[in-house]
User: What shape does this take?
Amino acid sequence: MDKTILQSEFTFKAVRSSGAGGQNVNKVSSKVVLNFDLANSKGLSEDEKVLLQTKIATKLKQDGILILTSEEDRSQLKNKEKVIKKCFKLLENALKVQKERKETKIPRAVKEKRLNSKKVMSVLKQNRKKTNF
Assistant: This one.
């Protein structure tokens, strides 16, 4: 994954933010929408593309375009920086390969302890019974 190539492939669009904000919200386009064409990216290898398409399939449109937005700040520049960070974080987390889990054995001492406690409980319950003369 080459970040400089990826960043040049991002397309941005400034849109008016939704929600409360008074008069400013009607005049200023501070919300930033990032579009990234995953399928035609030159910054990702074919293996990375396949892995990303499976891992972030719910976030992709049908034609393989990733759309992210940021409208936290009133500044368009800050929102642009945040959406770029959000995109790179999403891609990096999706490209991480988790280690396979190794199955561990239950230690012999633990098995013996469990069996001994069962025996003790069994004897205790046997002693509670009425004796038959």
Notes: The first strand starts at residue 11 and ends at 15.
